[in-house]
Amino acid sequence: MPGLLIVDDDAALRSWARRVLNAQGYECTVASDADGAREALARQDFSVVLLDVNMPGESGIKLLAYLRVEYPTTAVLMVTGEDDLGLATASIELGAYGYMVKPVRAGELLINVAIALYRRRREAEMRRHFERLEGSREDTTGALRRALEASELSPDGAAAIQSEAMRRLVRLAEFRDAETGQHMVRMGRYCELLALQRGLPEEYCEHLRMASELHDIGKVAIGDRILQKPGKLTVAEFEVLKTHAEVGHQLLADSDTELMRMAATIALTHHERWDGGGYPHGLAGEEIPLVGRIAAVADVFDALTNDRVYRPAFPVGLAVNMMEAERGRHFDPALLDAMHATFDHIDQVRRQHAD
Ligand SMILES: [Fe+2]
User: Fold this and answer.
1) So what's the pLDDT on residue 151?
2) Torsion angles phi and psi, residue 286, rounded to 5
3) Where is pLDDT greater, at 273 or 172?
4) Counts for the chain of helices (H) and strands (E), in that order
5) Which of 85, 148, 198, 293 could bond 332 through an S-S bridge, CB–CB 3.0 to 4.6 Å?
6) What distance lies between CA 345 and its chain's CA centroid?
């Protein structure tokens, strides 16, 4: 059973918590203040620390900050009096897994510890998964680079390899996503049409078409339970889904080729919003790279005009009105203008490449 550390200046609470947890087979160590906790941490690894917010000497919040840096894989549960609820809430932002308000009931304590252990295990799995992804990305880009160097390919040959690599990555993304290959094709074409309408050079628009098909490649790292869930996602599940933007970026970034770098930028920024309310970085207006703003319009238009596991497609006119209501909020106004201006072409692509 994993070791727990109970840090509280209240001796009665320490021994009560130890008794409750011991009875369930958890091994517990106790400390009455931050110094005692540091000594215990230096001697032994703990999976969970129960930490009092208000203690004489160094506060629990300060110790929490230290734990997050020095022992990032240890789960911390704050235990707090009614009067420091504000501090306890702030502790969540500092990385605590949760908090309990005194007097704590035995059931509540056991449930919170079990949840913290579960979440800690899931996070360790996610970390291992990312490390594997990172390793395979290095293998793939390294192999591609060596192949290009060894074969002294003509620029045309190199471009052919590049677009083949892109197509295969798109296929990988399709395996993991409930959406179809047609979604990727439509997404690419919509982005290309919007960029052409904005007067961007043809070659750039063609690159954008290919690169934008990889916008959701980061979903390869998201579990089926979330990706295929028919109902609404919980807040925690949505947080996991949101990581696809950064995972996609990690997967594609640092490439020598402009096309792949563009794809990395789109993966990272296609869920940013013009008003700064998007993710992962909450960029606003022109801070969001143009390709990300274009991809946002194309992605949402395609999502609204197609069936989802949790709802049927909206009629196309309604979808356009819904997007118009988000002018200056979700979307760059200039790109909505571009969408209207080239709408006949967009609608043609939609009908030609229906699921
Ligand atoms: Fe996405």
Assistant:
1) 52
2) -80, 0
3) 273
4) 15, 5
5) 293
6) 33
pLDDT at residue 138, as a whole number: 64
Q: Are 100 and 76 in contact (CB under 8 A)?
A: no
CA 299 to ligand 1 centroid distance, Å: 8
pLDDT at 154 over 60: no
Phi-psi label, residue 30: left if phi above 0, alpha if psi -120 to 50, beta otherwise: beta
Range 3-119 has CATH code 3.40.50.2300: yes
Residue type, 38: R
Angle between helices 155-176 and 181-197 (to 10 degrees): 130
What does the pLDDT read at residue 193? 97
CA 72 to ligand 1 centroid distance, Å? 28
Supply 68's token pair. 């997050």
Segments of the chain assigned to CATH 3.40.50.2300: 3-119
Number of residues that this document lists for the chain = 355
Q: What is the pLDDT of residues 252-300, one digit of tens each?
A: 888 888 888 999 999 999 999 999 999 999 999 999 999 999 999 999 9
State the distance from the centre of ligand 1 to the C-alpha of 216, rounded, in angstroms.
5
pLDDT of res. 307: 84
- pLDDT of 349 > 90? The answer is yes
CATH 1.10.3210.10 location in the chain: 155-352
Distance 113 CA to ligand 1 centre (A): 33
Catalytic residue among 219, 229, 232, 242: 219
The residue among 250, 295, 302 whose CA lies nearest residue 274 is: 295
Residues 155-352, CATH architecture: Orthogonal Bundle (1.10)
Residue 227, burial from CB neighbour count under 10 angstroms (0-12, 13-18, 19+): buried
Name the 3-class secondary structure at 99.
strand
Beta bridge partners of 227: none
**Residue 219 is a catalytic residue:** yes
Residue 29 belongs to what H/E stretch? strand 27-31
Closest CA to 353 of 170, 186, 173, 179: 186
Residue 200: phi, psi to the nearest 5? -80, 155
94 alpha carbon – ligand 1 mean position (Å): 27
- Region 75-85: mean pLDDT is 83
